[in-house]
């Protein structure tokens, strides 16, 4: 069954998204950029101001011909907040951000993840005091996990690190329990969403997010760890999912049956990644070669690296930069920036929260499957009632 969002809903979303993207924009500029009649913009802005999600905060400069100074508009940042959760095998990270994506608080908690349900409940209990102390409505909860995830249906298809091998209808359960929009996403793609969100959906065209984390091996009775790697892609400004939501899943071309983890290394050497300089360098070179191949073939202009301690991250970045240049066959300079993720080790949790913001400020599809989420009018009404 499909539902039709009315044209009024579309214009409200267009205006609201533009104010979110361009802090300080005026009514006249909104009308010019969107091609909407000025009186329509005034009505929409007035209704959004009445609800409280936007407000005027300053007067701009008059034009060259003089006249009235334009009123500048912005989102009311604490009109609502989004929760972002990263669930790994041994660490739980939860963050709370306002509507502009500013981090209110971030909490890390070490725990062995035996159940995604219990891990999620624990994350909500950790962040609840911060929400209650500010009395701020939650617009949604995003979760990033190391798994193949059907984002549209809110299901976990499979996760090797979390030992999930049958489909889990996670979001239906979470939405029912917490009466809040809940979205789930692959962890590396959350990194992409974080980079998009921190720029308010602008100026990220073709990029790769490399998520590399040293994680406890699932089912290990010891403290054995391994390097876990996943890729997230932004192509032509859009997060890339692939046909079966598995774009970005990685295993080295040097991997052979019997090897542990994702690389050529065996069980003994894998456990020394991060502590043994020689072994770490060998694995990083193997990884850097793969990243360079993707960056050059796809003509990416940015590679973001996240998930590692700062010293290891810097080492990996240097190796990736070198490999991109070495593997580039032309004399023309290769323009690809390699940099740390904007949010460091909190990138996945932030990106999960960013997923909620992107959904909240998205332009609605006129025809969309039912159950894909409330319209902007419904979302604003629900928040106002709370």
What does this structure look like?
The chain has eleven helices and 16 strands. The protein has helices spanning 7-21, 27-34, 38-51, 116-134, 170-178, 187-198, 267-270, 277-297, 310-327, 347-360, 376-385; strands spanning 2-4, 54-59, 71-75, 81-87, 91-98, 103-110, 138-145, 148-150, 155-158, 182-186, 207-216, 225-235, 238-240, 302-306, 337-340, 367-369. The strands form five sheets. The protein has a five-stranded mixed sheet. Strands 13-12-11-14-15 form a five-stranded mixed sheet, sandwiched between helices. It has a two-stranded antiparallel sheet with strand order 1-16. The longest helix is centred in the C-terminal third of the chain and has 21 residues, at 277-297. 41% of the residues are buried.
Question: What CATH architecture of the largest domain would you give?
Answer: 2-Layer Sandwich
Share of helical residues: 25-40%
According to CATH, what is the class of the largest domain? Alpha Beta
The strand order across the widest sheet is: 6-5-4-7-10
Output the number of helix runs: 11
Q: How would you summarize the topology of this molecule?
A:
Layout: E1 2-4, H1 7-21, H2 27-34, H3 38-51, E2 54-59, E3 71-75, E4 81-87, E5 91-98, E6 103-110, H4 116-134, E7 138-145, E8 148-150, E9 155-158, H5 170-178, E10 182-186, H6 187-198, E11 207-216, E12 225-235, E13 238-240, H7 267-270, H8 277-297, E14 302-306, H9 310-327, E15 337-340, H10 347-360, E16 367-369, H11 376-385
Parallel strand pairs: 4-7, 7-10, 11-14, 14-15
Antiparallel strand pairs: 1-16, 2-3, 4-5, 5-6, 8-9, 11-12, 12-13
């Amino acid at each position: 069954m499909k539902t039709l969002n009315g044209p009024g809903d579309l214009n409200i979303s267009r205006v609201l998204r533009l104010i979110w993207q361009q802090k300080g924009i005026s009514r006249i500029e909104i009308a010019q950029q969107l091609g909407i009649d000025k009186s329509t913009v005034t009505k929409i802005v007035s209704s959004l101001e009445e609800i409280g999600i936007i407000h005027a905060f300053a007067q701009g400069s008059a034009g060259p011909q003089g006249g009235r100074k334009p009123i500048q508009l912005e989102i009311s940042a604490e009109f609502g907040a989004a929760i972002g959760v990263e669930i790994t095998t041994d660490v739980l990270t939860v963050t709370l951000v306002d509507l502009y994506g500013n981090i209110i608080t971030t909490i890390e908690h070490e725990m062995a993840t035996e159940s995604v349900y219990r891990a999620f409940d624990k994350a909500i209990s950790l962040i609840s005091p911060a929400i209650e102390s500010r009395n701020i409505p939650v617009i949604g909860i995003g979760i990033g996990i190391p798994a193949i995830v059907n984002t549209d249906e809110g299901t976990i298809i499979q996760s090797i690190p979390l030992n999930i091998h049958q489909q889990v209808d996670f979001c239906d359960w979470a939405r029912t329990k917490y009466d809040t929009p809940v979205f789930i996403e692959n962890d590396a793609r959350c990194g992409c969403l974080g980079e998009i969100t921190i720029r308010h959906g602008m100026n990220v065209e073709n990029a790769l997010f490399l998520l590399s984390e040293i994680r406890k091996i699932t089912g290990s009775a010891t403290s054995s760890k391994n390097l876990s790697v996943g890729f997230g892609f932004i192509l032509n400004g859009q997060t890339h999912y692939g046909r079966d939501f598995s774009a970005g899943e990685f295993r080295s071309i040097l991997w052979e049956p019997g090897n542990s983890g994702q690389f050529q290394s065996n069980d003994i050497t894998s456990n020394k990644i991060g502590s043994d300089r020689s072994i770490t360098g060998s694995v990083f070179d193997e990884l850097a070669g793969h990243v360079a191949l993707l960056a050059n073939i796809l003509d990416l202009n940015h590679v973001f690296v996240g998930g590692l301690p700062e010293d290891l991250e810097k080492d990996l970045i240097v190796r990736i930069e070198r490999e991109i240049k070495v593997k580039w066959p032309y004399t023309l300079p290769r323009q690809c920036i390699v940099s740390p993720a904007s949010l460091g080790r909190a990138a996945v949790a932030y990106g999960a929260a960013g997923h909620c913001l992107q959904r909240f400020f998205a332009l609605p599809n006129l025809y969309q499957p039912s159950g894909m989420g409330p319209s902007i009018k419904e979302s604003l009404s629900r928040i106002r009632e709370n």
